[in-house]
Amino acid sequence: MDLTVTTSQQDDVCVVTVSGEVDVHTAAQLRATLDDEIAAGHTKIVLDLDDVGFLDSTGLGVLVGRLKLVRNHSGWLRIVCSNDRVLRVFRITGLDKVFGIHPSVADAVAA
């Protein structure tokens, strides 16, 4: 189970690009990356999950926890995802109503 996480900046927005599987074995890596960005003062975050093939409940827990953190600092966390398998997880859990989910990074940054 591999997970690759990279970060970049677009204007005042931090873009975190994730590829691989986000599960019980890799969620800590994603959590650490997001926590580092939030600790650095980046509270406007776009999380690009387009290259994620699998997302489990542990990964969802990381996302919900980080959403709460950035909201406490008047920030936001937006999701980029066009993968039907991953989108289905958001729909089943009702988290598609909690997160702004966008088809591209440009759309998420502009939203």
C-alpha Rg (nearest Å): 12 Å
Q: Specify the number of helices.
A: 4
Mean pLDDT: 92
Look at the helices and sheets and give the structural class. Answer: alpha/beta
Biggest sheet record? 5 strands, mixed
Strand order of the largest sheet: 1-2-3-4-5
Helix content: 40-55%
General description of the model:
With 111 residues, this protein is of the alpha/beta class. 41% of the residues lie in helices and 34% in strands. It is built from four helices and five strands. The protein has a five-stranded mixed β-sheet. β4, α3 (84-93) and β5 (100-102) form a beta-alpha-beta unit. It is globular. The model has no long low-confidence stretch (mean pLDDT 92).
List keywords for this structure.
single chain, 111 residues, alpha/beta, 4 helices, 41% helix, globular
How is this fold's topology laid out?
Elements: E1 3-10, E2 13-22, H1 27-39, E3 44-55, H2 57-72, E4 76-80, H3 84-93, E5 100-102, H4 105-110
Parallel strand pairs: 2-3, 3-4, 4-5
Antiparallel strand pairs: 1-2
Helix pairs in contact: 1-2
